[in-house]
Amino acid sequence: MDKITKSLLNEFVNEHNLGRLAEDKQFEHFAAFLTVGRSLGETLDTNDVVVGAGSDTGIDAIAIVVNGALVDDVAAINEFVERNGYLDVTFIFVQAERSASFDTAKIGQFSFGVNDFFKDENALPRNKDVEELAQVMTAIYEHSSKFRRGNPTCRLYYVTTGVWAGDAALEARRKSAVDDLLNLRIFKNVEFVPIDAEGIQRLHRESKNSVSREFDFALKAVVPTIDGVTESYVGLLAAPEFLKLVQDETGEILKGIFYDNVRDWQDFNAVNSEMRETLSSKSNRSRFALMNNGVTVIAKTLRTTANKFYIEDYQIVNGCQTSHVLHDQRDVLDDSVMIPLRLIATRDEDVIASIVKATNRQTEVREEQLLALSDFQKKLETYFSAFDEAQRLYYERRSRQYNSSGGIEKTRIITPGALIRAFAAMFLEEPHRVTRSYRRILDRVGADLFAPHHKLEPYYLSALAAYRLEYLFRNQFLDGTYRAARYEILLALRILEMPSPLPRMNSHEIERQCRPVIERLWDAAESEKMFARAADTVLAASAFDIDLAPLRTETFTDAIRDLANKKLKPKRKKRATNTA
To answer: Using CA atoms, how far apart are residues 438 and 442, in angstroms rounded to an integer?
Structure first.
């Protein structure tokens, strides 16, 4: 391994606390982070995608991205069908080799393993992780009528520290791998992407740096000076120039530039279908600027030279639907299609929050969503950062906001999605819904979670418990077979430490009960005991076989709740005796 790649790998290992793993496993996680991570809006936990561990069919990482979200559960597919009415799917496979050159035989093995993954009768033995993901794949194709934008995309990344120089034998092997998959006739597109040492360095730079773009913005007017705003413009931007802002170099839409969770892509509902029809009509597409409310972009950095604009660390805070429809219709767009654009440069978080609220109130976004995703989120971010460094977690209110921050242990970064799942498992007592019915939990934002009057301690406790549990898995203090039941373990821990019924989330009592649990979780030896007890409870509820347990079902949640409460009874009786 060359010195630069070795240095980047060491940095990644330190940031993600992977020092206990062998170097080949570290490199698998590193390769997965660089390749899969760029397709997701939230920071990737590589433990969710790395499958290489014997019977891995020659594949080191597998990611199934459905409607922009990483999916590892069959029930989630049914929910996407029910909630969205469509499936937009990308399969991503990664093979990571530390060798100094590309090997045609290993490329062939990788290709065969991917091909076998999609076969009805697999020839290669599969480990548990691969088998579960294959079941998700099967569920996806059982709903093939929902492929409204065409069949899934399949993307293969072969990562090594060598140099890809266009060798004829390697190119032929790559083409053969693509053709073999296309011959299955289940994909609209197949890509085989070789990543060499230079590619590793490029992807690493991209993962650290904020998104930046350069574009031509000729039809514009300068907005007069506004307090808190560095500069701003309104105008019309030609569609090809606008697409530069929302696509990566592969033509995929950038997930992280849309203001997090304010308003998801709504697929082709009545409004979006009408927008698509306008763009697909030669006679009507030139009128688009007159028929659309436009897009609002907020950038932390803005530089201009005449009509050349450079923006960095930017987000589209209003215009998610417009952006997705334009991306969908990109093949028919030309300079005659103009998009109304508001471009604002500011670093003032209060200004950003007020713009987000104002622009999204003009669309179908509920008030409680706006409150939860601005004021309350800002409170959480501030609260998390107020802890001493040793006990500090970092709440990632904006997508990938800490990517370029040096010295931060990346495992301490908590995304909104991760916090919602941990809180729902622990305090809503619904671990069975956090993957199967996640969208239904989101519907409760502003009421049962992220409510303006809620105390902040339960959220920090949820984030801390999830962080400590992952630490135990990553450092092999807790057997990896328990990982599939991690949300059930979080529930068991909370019941054992904070018995039901819980105080109200807006009460001082909930603060009082959370604080000692937080302190114990930061004690390494004590937290090991706490999680060991919680894991034992889950194991007992599974009849001592996690692999065969009915995970993510309400029945299993009830069994865990009952067992945890039974473990508390002796403690309660003893306390009563001491008091007497």
So the answer is: 6
Distance CA 195, CA 34 (A): 10
Residue 330's nearest CA partner among 383, 253, 407 is: 253
Assess contact for 54 and 20: CB atoms under 8 A. no
Instruction: Name, in order, each residue with C-beta under 8 angstroms of 544's C-beta and a sequence gap of 6 or more.
Output: none
Give the closest residue to 193 by CA, choosing from 106, 93, 117, 65.
93
The residues facing 220 across adjacent strands are 235
List phi, psi (to 5°) of 235.
175, -165
pLDDT computed for residue 434 by the predictor: 85
Strand-pair category, 61-66 with 69-70: antiparallel
Q: What is the pLDDT of residues 465-488, one digit of tens each?
A: 999 999 999 888 898 889 889 999
Query: Under 8 Å CB-to-CB from 213, ≥6 apart: which residues?
Result: 244, 245, 310, 311, 314
What's the half-sphere exposure (Cβ side, CA atoms, 13 Å) at 551? 24
Higher-pLDDT residue of 341, 568: 341
Q: Give the angle subtended at the CA of 247 by the CAs of 81 and 195, to the nearest 5°.
A: 95
Distance CA 327, CA 143 (A): 24
Residue 209, amino acid: N
104 burial type by CB count under 10 A (0-12 exposed, 13-18 middle, 19+ buried): middle
Could you list the beta-strand ranges (E) of 358-487: 394-395, 413-414
- Strands (DSSP E) found in 405-552: 413-414
**CB 488 within 8 Å of CB 425:** yes
pTM for this entry: 0.76
CA distance 449 to 371: 11
